[in-house]
Amino acid sequence: MDGGGMAGLPGSAGLALAAGVVHLDRPAAVFEAMLEGWATQQRARFLKEGGTIRPRLDLVRRFARFSGQYPWEWDPPEAEAFFASMRVAVSTLRNHQVTLRMFCDYVTDARYGWPVRCLEWFGDAPQQVLHEWNTVVHVADYEGEPGRRPLTYDEVQALFDAADGRAEEIRARRRKGLLAAMRDAAMLKTVYAFGLRRREVCGLDVADLRRNPKAPDYGEIGALFVRWGKSSHGSPPKRRTVLTVPEMDWVVPVLAGYLAEVRPRLAPGGHPALWVTERRGRISHRGLNRAFGESRDLAGLPGELDLHSLRHSYVTHLVEFDYPERFVQDQVGHAYASTTAIYTGVSDEYRNRLLERSLRARHGDLWEEPS
């Protein structure tokens, strides 16, 4: 290993800096080479360009502009001032700190050659500017917006009534958009009935509808094959099969009606998508968000509730239906039971039923229900 780092290592100084090139602005050229080298290192791990790599590079550039310094000049007080100036959620701040810490880990790692190169050219070497004393401590399982929560049963019903009502109003007034409104109503009900993420909904094809031999009455809607589950650590999207549960079997005629009466009239041609637009394309994330937002507002529900709240509702209601935790975890595609627990917000009524069950088991006939 020379001053350029370990030979052939993705992201090393020797690969990022062209040999024999004289830079008019050497510090700026080295900084850009560091960023490109770090991006190359992340690409070697198959991390997503737009969703992961680019936002990380943007944050590092923001810090460089804030400090007016290059990485070999950074120190902890400068990083502390940068993060103290932010007005963001705690979880967002922690993600930003993790990003900057990872970049500092990269440029201070001797295997990549940046410390030696910076000492040679600038007389100083990069250092780690974030440590346990100046970063946010993770002490709570859930750090999202307090207003974001599962919907109650009445709120779910109000949301669906609003979506159906919107379609009926358009029909009564003979306005454009009836098919889209009917599609949106069926789509929102599917999100809740299967506990789906935004990307999972948009990625569904008609071919992803599955039969379940254990529930033949549901026909082709006994399960959904989800192919666009949340990926992690550079892996491809995770796949899973979500079974139609009896408590949600009302979705079977909803989907069947959409497939028989609405989707063909949208004239999708050979497009495989389950949810198609009037322009014969796949529904977008923005379109799905808009459908939820319009129905939520029509139903008079709090603005803090978003589409993902339906997934929280699905988890909570499965727990309240007394499904085992492992079943719920598999249905929603969580790698860890602790993640499923964060999604769960059971009602007081359910907790009282558990308490009553425990009291009956403990005291038997001696326990009397209060009048």
Amino- and carboxy-terminal Cα gap: 81 Å
Structural class: mainly alpha
| Biggest β-sheet strands, sense, barrel | 3 strands, antiparallel
Number of domains: 2
- State the low-pLDDT regions, or none: 139-143
Mind telling me the C-alpha Rg?
27 Å
Short description:
By secondary structure, the chain is mostly helical. Helices cover 52% and strands 4% of the residues. The protein has helices at residues 13-16, 26-43, 49-67, 76-84, 90-108, 114-122, 153-173, 178-194, 198-202, 251-262, 285-299, 308-320, 325-332, 337-343, 348-363; strands spanning 209-210, 223-229, 238-243.
Q: Can you put this structure into words, describing what you see?
A:
The structure is a single chain. The chain has helices at residues 13-16, 26-43, 49-67, 76-84, 90-108, 114-122, 153-173, 178-194, 198-202, 251-262, 285-299, 308-320, 325-332, 337-343, 348-363; strands spanning 209-210, 223-229, 238-243. It is built from 15 helices and 3 strands. The protein is mainly alpha-helical. It folds into 2 domains: 13-122, no CATH class; 153-354, Orthogonal Bundle (hpI Integrase, Chain A), CATH 1.10.443. The longest helix has 21 residues, at 153-173.
